[in-house]
Design a protein that fits this description.
The chain is of the alpha+beta class. It contains 11 helices and 17 strands. The strands form 3 sheets. The protein has a 7-stranded antiparallel β-sheet, with no helix packed on it. A 7-stranded antiparallel β-sheet has the order 11-17-16-15-14-13-12. Strands 6-7-8 form a 3-stranded antiparallel β-sheet, with no helix packed on it. A hairpin with a 3-residue loop joins strand 14 and strand 15. It is globular, with a radius of gyration of 23 Å. The structure holds FE2/S2 (inorganic) cluster (FES) and fe (ii) ion (FE2).
Length: 410
C-alpha cells in the first residue's frame, strides 16, 4: 500500500520521488509540438521498436510499412529471404515510394514519381537519364536502411545506427519468457484504431487498473482490479531497464480473458500452473503493450502521429496448431478486448481534451497508480538527459562503405 499524505508537493510540472507527493505531467506535455518532436527523437527514433511479424512477409517481395511521427518505414523480404528495413523515401526527390501499408511479391520497388527503381534488397537499379551525371553512382543511392533484428517471431527495428543491439537493449525483457515458443504463434486477428490521444496518456492508462471498475466492468469481473502484483518498474525496485508491468489473477476459477471467463483453447506451450492463473501485462518502452494470456498473446503497438493523435495496432496471436483445428474461433478473446480497447480509447480521448484546459495544472496520484508515477518519473528523467547528437554512420548518410573510407583518408 502506498503511503499518502506527505504535505509538500513538488513544483508544478515536476515529478517527485514519492508517489504521494507527485503532480502529473503538465498539459503541455500532451499537446506541445516541440515536446512531441523531442520525444520522437529521444525515444522512438532511439529505441528498438516492435514493428510486426516475420511470418507476415513470408515470400521475397512481401512488405509492410509503418508510420511513426513523420517517418514512414518499409520492411521487405529480399530475394535472399532476409528481412530488411528502409526509410520509405526515394533518393531522387524524396517521394514516399510505397503508399500501401502492406503488399506482396514485389519484383522491385518503383518510385511513382520518376520511376527510380530499387531492388528488394534496397539497391538502386534503375534511374532514367542519369547516365551522364558527374560524380553519381547508383551504388551510392540505395534506400537508406534502418536496423532490423528478430526475436520471438517478431521483427524489431531501430533508427539509431549507433545504438545498442536488440539483445543489449531488450535482453532483460526477453529473459522473462524462456519457456515460451512465441515463434510458433500466428496472427489470429488485428484491429487498428485511430485515437485522438497523446501516446503517454495511452501508456499511463495501460499502467494502472484504478480505472477498471468504472470503465471495464467486463474485465473487472474476470480479473479484479486489486488482484496481482507489479514485478517490474522503470525507476524503482524491482527495476527493469526499459519495461514495467506485472500480472493480474483470475477471479474464481476463470481461465482466460474471454467473454465467459472460460477458454476452450489449451494453454500456450510452456505455461506453468501459475501462469495459467494470470495475465501478464508489460509496457515495453516506448510503444509496446505486451499482454500474455494463458491461451493467447495480445500486443498493442502505439504509433504516435502527432501530440494528440496515435494509431494503435492491436494483434492477437494464437498457437499455430490450435489455429488449424476445426472450429477455431478467436472472437471470444478479440471481441471482448475490442470492447475493452474502445472503453480505454474513449476515456483517454476525454483525458486528452481535459488536459488542454487552462484550468489543468496536474493532479495527484492515488495509491493504485505507482506504475503511472514510475512512468512519469522515467519520462522526466529521460527528457533531462543530455541529447547527444551521434555521428551518422556512412550507411545512414547514404554513402557506400568504399566511398566513406575514401573520405576518411582524405
Ligand atoms: S522522386 Fe522518386 S523517382 Fe523522382
Ligand atoms: Fe483500461
Amino acid at each position: 500500500m502506498e503511503k499518502v499524505g506527505v504535505p509538500k508537493a513538488p513544483a508544478r510540472g515536476e515529478v517527485g520521488e514519492h508517489l504521494s507527493a507527485s503532480t502529473l505531467l503538465t498539459g503541455a506535455s500532451f499537446w506541445d509540438d516541440a515536446i512531441f518532436l523531442e520525444e520522437l527523437e529521444r525515444f522512438f527514433f532511439r529505441s528498438w521498436l516492435n514493428v510486426g511479424r516475420s511470418d507476415q512477409i513470408p515470400d521475397p517481395g512481401d512488405f509492410f510499412a509503418r508510420e511513426v511521427g513523420n517517418e514512414s518505414l518499409l520492411f521487405i523480404r529480399g530475394k535472399d529471404h532476409e528481412v530488411r528495413g528502409f526509410y520509405n523515401v526515394c533518393r531522387h526527390r524524396g517521394t514516399r515510394i510505397v503508399g500501401e501499408t502492406e503488399g506482396s511479391k514485389l519484383g522491385s520497388l518503383v518510385c511513382p514519381y520518376h520511376a527510380w527503381t530499387y531492388s528488394t534488397e534496397g539497391r538502386l537499379v534503375g534511374a532514367p537519364h542519369t547516365e551522364r551525371l558527374v560524380d553519381f553512382s547508383k551504388e551510392e543511392y540505395g534506400l537508406r536502411a534502418v536496423r532490423v533484428d528478430t526475436w520471438g517471431g517478431f521483427v524489431w527495428a531501430s533508427l539509431d545506427d549507433a545504438g545498442p543491439t536488440l539483445g543489449e537493449e531488450m535482453g532483460e525483457f526477453f529473459a522473462r519468457f524462456p519457456r515460451f515458443d512465441f515463434e510458433g504463434l500466428r496472427l489470429g486477428a488485428r484491429r487498428t484504431y485511430e485515437v485522438e490521444a497523446n501516446w503517454k496518456i495511452l501508456g499511463e492508462n495501460y499502467s494502472e487498473c484504478y480505472h477498471c471498475a468504472p470503465i471495464h466492468p467486463e474485465l473487472n469481473r474476470i480479473t479484479h482490479y486489486t488482484s496481482g502484483a507489479y514485478t517490474a518498474y522503470f525507476m524503482r525496485e524491482p527495476r527493469a531497464p526499459n519495461f514495467n508491468g506485472g500480472f493480474m489473477e483470475f477471479s474464481k476459477d476463470y481461465t482466460s480473458m474471454v467473454w465467459s471467463g472460460y477458454t476452450k483453447r489449451p494453454p500456450l506451450k510452456g505455461m506453468t500452473e501459475e501462469d495459467r492463473r494470470r495475465v501478464d501485462y508489460y509496457f515495453v518502452f516506448p510503444h509496446l503493450f505486451f499482454s500474455l494470456h494463458p491461451d493467447y498473446l495480445m500486443v498493442h503497438r502505439l504509433w504516435p502521429r502527432s501530440p494528440h493523435h496515435t494509431t494503435i495496432e492491436c494483434d492477437w496471436y494464437f498457437d499455430a496448431g490450435v489455429m488449424e483445428t476445426q472450429g477455431f474461433d478467436p472472437s471470444d478473446a478479440v471481441d471482448l478486448w475490442d470492447l475493452i480497447n474502445r472503453q480505454d480509447w474513449s476515456v483517454c480521448q476525454r483525458t486528452q481534451l481535459g488536459t488542454r484546459s487552462r484550468a489543468w495544472r496536474g493532479g495527484r496520484f492515488s495509491g493504485q497508480e505507482s506504475q503511472v508515477h514510475d512512468f512519469e518519473r522515467f519520462i522526466a528523467a529521460r527528457m533531462r538527459e543530455p541529447l547527444v547528437k551521434k555521428p551518422r554512420s556512412p550507411r545512414r548518410r547514404g554513402l557506400s562503405r568504399s566511398r566513406a573510407a575514401r573520405r576518411r583518408t582524405r
